[in-house]
Amino acid sequence: KVLFGDEETQDTFEKGESGTFTNGKTTKTDVNDPNTLSWHTGLLSFEKTPLKKVFSDLQRHYGIPFEVQTTVKSQLTARFQSQPLEEVLDILQETLDVKIEKRGSQYIIF
Fold this sequence. Notes:
It contains three helices and nine strands. A hairpin with a 4-residue loop joins strand 1 and strand 2 (10-13). It has a three-stranded mixed beta sheet, with helices on one face. The protein has a two-stranded antiparallel sheet with strand order 1-2. By secondary structure, the protein is an alpha+beta fold.
């Protein structure tokens, strides 16, 4: 076990967990998640993954904010290897029942 954080905010991390500490907030990440190292490997892998998790991983990988407004309960099974964001988003719109629109610096999914 490892304590992580500052004097006011501390979390305990177990084997298989990693985290970040930004602006006084700790965020835990499951190291067993295949997309944890996507920034390094270029590979995004989804296996029956709910949409919110898909767009959370895309946000972390591409550094672009996404706001999921849809209530669609779709899941994604797909692999993307070093593909440009626009290509990935086109594929998602074609295969899932969602529309993706860029507004300012973020993408809205509805």
